Amino acid sequence: MNGDSPREACGLFGVWAPGEDVARLAYFGLYALQHRGQESAGIAVSDGHNILVYRELGLVSQVFDERTLSTLQGDLAIGHTRYSTTGSTTWENAQPSFKTDGERGLALGHNGNLVNTEELAEQVGRRGPATTDSDLVASLLAAQGRDLETAALRVLPTLRGAFSFVLMDERTVFGARDPHGLRPLAIGRLEGGWVLASETAALDIVGAEYVREVEPGELVMLDDRGLRSIRYADSPRAALCLFEFVYLARADSRLYGRTVHEARRGMGRRLAAEAPAPADVVIPVPDTGHSAAAGFAESSGIPYGEGLIKNRYVHRTFIEPTPGLRQRGVRLKLNPLADAIRGKRLAVVDDSIVRGTTTRQIVQMLRDAGAREVHMRITSPPIRWPCYYGIDMSTREELVAAGMPVEEIRDFIGADSLAYLSLTGVVEATGAPADTFCRACFDGAYPIPVPERTSKHLLERD
To answer: How far apart are CA 150 and CA 141, in angstroms?
Structure first.
């Protein structure tokens, strides 16, 4: 992963487990999902009568400590890690969102991005300091004046766009996915309860057994009646974001029955076949490049090596809001192994290029460390179209491939050669049919119509 990679919205976790320390389970679940969002973290807990929410800006380990977790007592909880794709990075926009009418409350965590936000906002009016589509949905649910299950069945069909939700009232945890299933949400079973999580890696960390995915258009309920399910909308077709396999998900998570690691390894093998590199060593750009680089080396017969070392205690550069900060962050995060690359021809494997600026810095860094040649190999096709469903690349102007052919991009980043994996190659590596994915950032075919006017700060007020 580098600072040019797409940035995703959020990580979700939910647990219903009477007698367990649900706040601690949520903490460890969020810890496993930290890569999905590093701007804020929060946990909501209920003891069956009252919901208590604690949320703050920062990493999971910065927001929560033993003292804080000890105050969050109950039998059910939801948790959230955030990267903003709607609304600014403020405490008010941290999640879970919480609403109450004085008698009953609800908490909500959201992964994704709605595309009919303006229309929904008109129904609610001015709501307070929060400026996210997530808080808007919480307000719509609270405005129903009904139990949360009934409210969800009324509100969910009115939403357009990408969403996975974890919701809770005082007694029940809910999970829901949009009718296309653009954002993932898995169900796990504990010995005495149930878990929901954006990725199966978060189920593993709390000792939950994977059961299945929440289906597109499905609402599930976890409480003392067990696991219940209602379909609130028909699914036109599945359209899981293809970037879950390319970059977003952890390598040890499973999607469509396959580990992300094995899919990325397959992408590397296919890339070596489609675009051989005249190299002495194959090196990954940490961390998502490791699996693919191993596959590239295996298929090409070129030795695999480490050429870039990542400082694991530096925040991912994608949380920094300005290009200048992003550029300064790269040197903090990656450092070349000069002895391993000096005089060598390098095949450098990375997952994607969005703006191109960070890739350009990496190429220069490798040359400064003595690399004789740098051949960039990317395990996804050129990103030419914006994402409106929860990845922070919302304008064509910021996409280097939208305005440049591959050879011009190669010249811009300063590499000796540049090649991308074909869309067919990416899909084949996942083992799933092409029509089960959203591929819009590559081919411009959006599964959900997108309004002409949309912006990350659509709900911001003067």
So the answer is: 9
Active-site pick, 10, 387, 438, 441: 10
Are residues 64 and 202 both part of a single domain? yes
Q: Is 10 a catalytic residue?
A: yes
Does 53 reside within a domain? yes
- pTM summary value: 0.90
Residues 217 and 336 in one domain: no
Asked, for residue 268, whether it belongs to a domain, the answer is: yes
Q: Are residues 230 and 271 in the same domain?
A: no
* Residue 406 host element (H or E): helix 406-413
- Rounded (10°) CA dihedral 75, 78, 81, 84: -160
Q: What's the pLDDT at 456?
A: 40
Are both 274 and 402 inside the same structural domain?
yes
Residue 310 pLDDT: 87
Q: Is 444 a member of any domain?
A: no
| Cα 371 from Cα 411, distance rounded (Å) | 17
* Cβ burial, residue 341 (10 Å; 0-12/13-18/19+): buried
DSSP β-bridge partners for residue 109: 166
121 and 204 inside one domain: yes
The CATH code of the domain that includes 190 is: 3.60.20.10
In a domain, 254, yes or no: no
* DSSP annotation string for 291-316: HHHHHHHHHH-PPB---EEE-TTSPP
Domain-ending residue, one of 210, 239, 268: 239
- The number of distinct structural domains making up the chain is 2
Predicted confidence (pLDDT) per residue in 278-332, tens digit: 999 999 999 889 999 999 999 999 999 999 998 776 554 444 445 665 555 556 6
Residues 306 and 417 in one domain: yes
With residue 218 as reference, give the H or E element that holds it.
strand 218-223
Residue 270: the pLDDT is: 98
- Say what the pLDDT of residue 131 is: 63
Output phi, psi for 229, to 5 deg: -145, 140
Peptide bond into 287 cis (omega under 30): yes
Q: Do 15 and 135 have their domain in common?
A: yes
Angstrom distance (rounded) from CA 200 to CA 249: 9
Instruction: Tell me the residue type at 366.
Output: L
Angle at 295 between CA 292 and CA 301, to 5 degrees: 135
- 439 φ/ψ angles, rounded to the nearest 5 degrees: -120, 20
CB 204 within 8 A of CB 253: no
Q: Which residues of the chain have pLDDT under 70?
A: 1-9, 84-91, 126-131, 313-332, 394, 453-462
Domain span at 295: 260-431
CA 117, distance to chain mean position in Å, is 20
